[in-house]
Design goal:
Uridine Diphospho-n-acetylenolpyruvylglucosamine Reductase, domain 2; Enolase-like, domain 1; 276 residues; alpha+beta; 5-stranded antiparallel sheet; 14 strands; 27% helix; globular; 4-stranded antiparallel sheet; single chain; 24% strand
């Protein structure tokens, strides 16, 4: 390891980032397993000492999840029902130890195609907050994650939080995940949805995103447009709705298998909202 820093305030963290490139460390649930048996050869900036970064703040405009907000914090917080999908994802992330230590911001910064937070945050129209000594800026999550393990974060920036605009009062979220088991598993396919219905149980608005079927999770905007005015149990998934997906063959499943199961998982996620 070249240099390890654990500041207790934001100003010192930003100063360190401005002076040298660093690998950022929050919960460490991805950092440490990837380096077992290896020498750590990079500078490490540990953010875990900055207490103000672990918070969930509600404003008139929405919700700000701080950089050190953990999966357990999400599960334990009183959040609108639109966050239900994110909460469901949180309880399937590893074991209790991982949920207590792992952070949402770490999950999106890791930029894995199978990151469980990402589809759910996309359906919540999440914005990524970035800070450096030079500036503060926001990016839609869809613009922040550029590809497999690639983000738009600059070398002197860190993600200070995730902002989620206040969802509709009647919006409800849901999450479906396909893996070799229900928990402690990397997803083969996952679907996050947020649905808002009218008094006739017709779709007023649907937001849906699919993960682990492309280098980056994808919003299915054509499907979102087509289902407005429909009943949940009458929604049909058409091949054209899935054209933006780019599934691959890997050790967990083949691309063809992912194509077969995705429509069924989408139906379960969408229709599961009504069962709530």
């Amino acid at each position: 390891m070249l240099d390890y820093s654990r500041p207790d305030n934001l100003e010192d963290a930003l100063l360190t980032l401005s002076e040298q490139p660093c690998t950022l460390l929050a919960g460490g649930t991805d950092f440490y397993p990837a380096r077992v048996g290896k020498k750590i050869t990079e500078n490490v900036l540990d953010l875990s000492g900055i207490r103000g970064l672990r918070s969930i703040q509600e404003t008139e405009e929405g919700f700000l999840l701080g950089a050190l907000t953990t999966w357990t914090d999400i599960v334990d917080s009183d959040l609108p029902s639109a966050f239900d999908g994110l909460k469901q994802a949180a309880i399937t992330i590893g074991g209790i130890q991982t949920q207590n230590a792992g952070t949402l911001c770490g999950n999106i910064c890791n930029a894995s195609p199978a990151a469980d937070a990402v589809p759910n945050l996309m359906t919540l129209d999440a914005e990524v907050k970035l800070k450096s000594l030079r500036e503060s800026r926001s990016l839609p999550l869809e613009e922040f994650i550029l590809g497999n393990r690639k983000t738009a974060r600059k070398a002197d920036e860190f993600v200070s939080g995730i902002f989620i605009p206040r969802p509709g009062e009647n919006a409800v979220g849901n999450f479906e995940k396909l893996g070799t088991r229900s928990y402690l598993v990397i997803s083969i396919v996952m679907v996050g949805v947020v649905v808002e219905l009218n008094e006739q149980d017709e779709v007023m608005e649907l937001k849906v995103a699919v993960g682990a079927c492309s280098p980056v999770a994808k919003r299915l905007r054509l499907l979102e447009e087509d289902v407005v005015g429909q009943k949940l149990n009458s929604i049909e998934i058409q091949p054209r709705h899935l054209e933006s997906l780019q599934p691959i063959d890997d050790i967990r499943a083949s691309a063809s298998f992912r194509k077969i199961v995705t429509p069924e998982l989408l139906k379960r996620a969408i229709q599961g909202v009504k069962q709530k």
